[in-house]
Amino acid sequence: MENIGHLINGKLREDNAGTQPVYNPATGEAIRELMLAPDDLVNEAVDIANAAFQSWRDQPAIKRARIMFKYKQLLEENKDEICRLIGEEHGKIAHDAAGELQRGIENVEYACAAAELLKGEYSKNVGPSIDSWSEHQPLGVVAGITPFNFPAMVPLWMFPMALVCGNCFILKPSEKDPSTSLFIAMLLKEAGLPDGVMQVLQGGKSVVDGLLTHKGIEAVSFVGSTPIAKYIYEQATQNGKRCQALGGAKNHAIVMPDCDLENAANQLVGAAYGSSGERCMALSVAVVVGQETADSLAAMLKPKLDELRVGAFYDNDNDFGPVISREHKEKVNGYISSAESDGAILVVDGRNPEVEGYESGYFVGPTLIDNVLPNMTSYQEEIFGPVMQIVRVDSMQEAMTLIDNHEYGNGTCIFTRDGEAARYFSDNIKVGMVGINVPLPVPVAYHSFGGWKQSLFGDLHAYGPDSVKFYTRRKTITQRWPSANVREGAVFSMPTL
Ligand code: NAD
């Protein structure tokens, strides 16, 4: 079986403090063996990155950007291989993997504008013959810790911008599907990135803890579940590091009685079940205003779900694949069972679907649960599976209160034809990313991504303009060149004009 190693100073290494299998979730087979980095390799990687930092930070931004131009081309040329790796270890169908990669590449395109983004600000004559400017300086060595559900896109949210800002980067990918992240990191060398500027360490908690406590790391970007995000944020900041930690989600769509219901139903199906519901922006709760609308929506959804094709990534006609692991499949099935025993109505039950030829895969079929109440566990917690729940309410205000009271605030959407209602909703809802008749309002690469409440810890959102702020520190320089006519004696009062 092939080993998955680390990328250290431009070379693959297999040092390990143990190993762990990586599974193909469609077949349930162990397909590769992951090397878990020992503590001394974490220290070595940080030392190498610190040694590489000075000359990398001194490169003109345009030269760093040129590496990203080449990198974008390499990602596109290697699209099939990247999608195959995503499919093999994550289970995502090829068309969905291609979408993930494309959204990642858009972050590389944004990073190509480094020279423009890092220009800074300049003011002439802030005082007599005094000029002042602010510049964005890189932080040093920064780390990224990423989740299983986007093994290409989420790392690409982080390292292209961190690198063009002049930092060195250490990536710790998810141990569940690490090959994609390692592969895309290796392409950077081919694009011309100097050795040691980008490295990959494989492993789990002990590697993460090693990075969080290491004095040579200046900042940590994290994306994953909320309990771990909280832990990372607390540990990183207690250890004096800058941190942004994006957490879990429970995304609601309000379905208004005046909306185009057929369109809303189609949009909901794609956004709830795409990628097996394993997206932090998956629309997992439809909050339907009015009993009649809810009855019509449930009746419309059922036949659509019956037609969905669930299977392995090899067949591009499938709509979605397996969930990530056997344990996760059991967890998702457990939420479905809990909703049923709490009194909700199981309209479509996806527990243990038959997928011919893939009987040992971790499949959950599309599931629709109606009459869900806010006190049910299946409503309160993130399921992260192909499960949509319908909560019935009497008014838009009731729907908004429900959303505002939920602990997560990542994404939300309203389906309506009423511009005034939509404007009120987007203006007042306590959620970070809002769609109006757009079910997955994932911001494009030149806007930043982030939720509110328990969906994000830290002050800045991920990628886009906020990433320049996150991956640099501001320095403001005030300059005067004394000459005969401006030379003056000591001044003891605060300088003013
Ligand atoms: P996870 O929290 O289990 O793992 C994320 C990363 O943390 C992995 O690299 C993992 O190795 C590491 N990790 C796990 N346990 C740890 C521990 N005890 N100490 C230190 N590090 C640890 O998340 P996941 O299951 O890989 O991903 C799914 C979750 O990520 C969902 O909750 C989803 O909503 C969330 N997510 C959020 C966003 C967002 O932008 N807000 C995007 C994608 C995924």
From TrEMBL:
<dbReference type="Pfam" id="PF00171">
    <property type="entry name" value="Aldedh"/>
</dbReference>
<protein>
    <recommendedName>
        <fullName>methylmalonate-semialdehyde dehydrogenase (CoA acylating)</fullName>
        <ecNumber>1.2.1.27</ecNumber>
    </recommendedName>
</protein>
<keyword id="KW-0560">Oxidoreductase</keyword>
<dbReference type="InterPro" id="IPR016163">
    <property type="entry name" value="Ald_DH_C"/>
</dbReference>
<dbReference type="InterPro" id="IPR016161">
    <property type="entry name" value="Ald_DH/histidinol_DH"/>
</dbReference>
<dbReference type="InterPro" id="IPR016162">
    <property type="entry name" value="Ald_DH_N"/>
</dbReference>
<dbReference type="InterPro" id="IPR010061">
    <property type="entry name" value="MeMal-semiAld_DH"/>
</dbReference>
<dbReference type="InterPro" id="IPR016160">
    <property type="entry name" value="Ald_DH_CS_CYS"/>
</dbReference>
<keyword id="KW-0520">NAD</keyword>
<feature type="domain" description="Aldehyde dehydrogenase">
    <location>
        <begin position="16"/>
        <end position="477"/>
    </location>
</feature>
<dbReference type="InterPro" id="IPR015590">
    <property type="entry name" value="Aldehyde_DH_dom"/>
</dbReference>
